[in-house]
Amino acid sequence: MNYLSDFIKLFANNLTNWIEAQKTFLDTITSMEKDLESSDRLELILATRTAFNHMIKTIEAFDKWLQDPFIVGHMPREMLLEVQKNVWEILKKLLELDIKHTAAFRDRLLNLSETGKINPLFFVPREQQQRVEERFRVSY
After folding, report:
1. Residues 118, 112: contact at Cβ < 8 Å?
2. CA–CA separation, 39 vs 45, rounded Å?
3. Which residues have C-beta within 8 Å of that of residue 65, sequence separation ≥ 6?
4. Three-state SS string across the chain, please?
5. CB proximity list for 83: less than 8 A, separation 6 or greater
6. What's the pLDDT tens digit per position in 99-136?
7. Which residues have CB under 8 Å from 43's CB, separation 6+?
8. Distance, CA of 42 to chain centre
9. pLDDT tens digit string along 39-78?
């Protein structure tokens, strides 16, 4: 019984650390939002990639969380339902963003092509892609 009590205390402490780290990151990104309104393209790309990386880390951790029998065995249905509903809303929002962004970029690309404004420096023909370093490859 003592071992179980010690485990719970340690586990709860780890959860507290995770919560505090997430709160700190949330505070950081919230405080940066106003600055991003006037950021240049590079800063916007870096901010978005940082967000993606943190989202991936959080999603992977959440997925592992829901695979742990100790956790889900003690989690009431109401908590699982709340998570499922929220995750589905996030998924729908992400899909809507992806559809809107990809369609808008496709249309922009077609317009640039029609007006002769495609920058040839960013294009590598498929037959040459194997010889080009991965960091220079444009996916299409």
Report:
1. yes
2. 10
3. 71
4. CHHHHHHHHHHHHHHHHHHHHHHHHHHHHHHHHHHHCCCCHHHHHHHHHHHHHHHHHHHHHHHHHCCCHHHHHCCCHHHHHHHHHHHHHHHHHHHHHHHHHHHHHHHHHHHHHHCCCCCHHHCCCHHHHHHCCHHHCCCC
5. 62, 66
6. 999 999 999 999 999 999 999 888 877 776 666 566 55
7. 36
8. 18
9. 999 999 999 999 999 999 999 999 999 999 999 999 999 9
Q: Quote the tokens at residue 3.
A: 């071992």
Q: What are phi and psi of 86, to 5 degrees?
A: -65, -40
Task: Tell me which residue has tokens 């919560």.
Answer: 19
Q: Could you tell me the two tokens for 114?
A: 């029609």
| Tokens linked to 101 | 């962004």
The verdict on pTM exceeding 0.70 is yes
In the numeric block, the tokens 């700190």 are attached to: 24
The one-letter amino acid code at 18 reads: W
Burial class (CB in 10 A: 0-12, 13-18, 19+), 50: middle
Q: Quick check: 75 and 65 in contact, CB under 8 A?
A: no
